[in-house]
Amino acid sequence: NGFFGFNWPYWNASSNMHCAICWNSLQLGVITMIISGHQWSLSSQNMTSKTQSAGNQRRYNSSLVGTSETTRTATPFSQTFCQWLAGLIDGDGCLLVSKEGYTSLEITVGLEDLPLLRYIQNKLGGSIKMRSGAKTYRYRLHNRQGIIQLVTCINGYIRHSTRLLQLHHVCQQLNIPIITSESLSVASAWFAGFFDADGTIGFSIKNGIPQLSVRVTNKLLQDVSCYMDIFGGNIYFDSAQNGYYQWSIQ
């Protein structure tokens, strides 16, 4: 199972918003980004693994790093949902602390992904508004108890470079210890969440032979290398849009 055979947590929320593609039991959810442009291949043999070694999770004070170990705070949500949500936030979300010290979460998606935000809203509360002129919807969660519940859910699963720093600021404001990001495996639902944010599926016919490609893009190499570490494939650099990295497997 894992990413290539994983049923997305909100799979049943809106059946007309999803597609099912049969390829080694491949089941994929909402497609939110289309990438084009010239690519330069990077050898997978030269890539450095970013996946942390397995071991006990360590929880640190958000302002002073320590070494004391403790257990994860209980959450009403399943591990699958928490991992998936963390992946989605890593790709399309933003954790904020205002000048006044108020914490909030924002997730922005295209019009076609409104059912995804509804699914999260049903779990966590919060509000959804259409952004004028942008053809996008924005989900926002800002009440203190809701943010605490959110942090309890995603703490230890956030791993994107920018988002992890944002989580540190939020945890510091709420006096919640940070949990280091757990090691990823083929069964981690984080891959599905990040794919819902930054992934694409491509299908073409070449010389009469159908070809299927699965791709994930991001500005930083370290934030897509985990896909190659777990699933293989290759990573390319595209100079369009100020440059980005794309993991691809066919």
TrEMBL record:
InterPro entries: Homing_endonucl, LAGLIDADG_dom
GO molecular function: endonuclease activity
SUPFAM superfamilies, alphabetized: Homing endonucleases
Gene3D superfamilies reported for this sequence: Homing endonucleases
Pfam families: LAGLIDADG_1 (PF00961)
Highest taxon in the source lineage: Eukaryota
Residue ranges of every copy of the Homing endonuclease LAGLIDADG domain listed in the record: 85-172
Entry protein name: Homing endonuclease LAGLIDADG domain-containing protein
